[in-house]
Amino acid sequence: MAVNQFDAIKHRYPRIPCYMIMDKTYLEGAPLISSGGSGYAINKEGYVWSKDNKKEIESGVIIEAPTIEELAKKLEIPNPATLVDTVNRWNDDLKTKGIDTEYGRTPTADPNQKAVFVGRDVKAWSAPIEEGPFYAVKLVPVMYHTMGGPRRSVKAECLNPYGEKIPRLYVAGELGSTWGLTYQGACANADAMIFGRIAGKEAAALTPWS
Fold first, then answer.
1. Are the C-beta atoms of residues 98 and 106 closer than 8 Å to each other?
2. Sign of dihedral through CA atoms 103, 107, 112, 115?
3. Strands 18-23, 134-139: pairing kind
4. 111 preceded by cis ω (within 30°)?
5. Percent of the chain at pLDDT above 90?
């Protein structure tokens, strides 16, 4: 991904955070985050996103400005003209070329694409950004799931690089998952329950240390 660019001299990711830019038309369409979304604020804190996005605008989660240039200043972009040019190029691509020339995205979704949530699949990916006021939301990549880890046997024994069991060491859950490096939605709970039980049973059967 473009945001993964790392500056080895300054030891930072200069493209993080990035921002989602939108106009009045987009924001008035629906809540920016649906009630079916995920994340810490929703799942742990019980946050309910407003239907008209006004609460989030007032709190500053959604940043508002009358023009793209003013929006760039609020985002502390060193040269506001850069964002203005980006938005103009985006609008021109959609209107005259029918495709995003920078990343190859098309204005409409691929009808053959698998829906992430049945009944809530995206009908259109892109639209011009023209009608003010304009808005931005800070986007920061997060780690939400890990896969891989040490290999394990059918008895949940942790294995060394040669496939030999390491005495008295067991793994369970997503650690050394049966799915390898591939994320399988809704399968992690089964992984945790099954191998947690196996690991517990095998460990409990060991002769205690004296």
1. yes
2. positive
3. antiparallel
4. no
5. 47
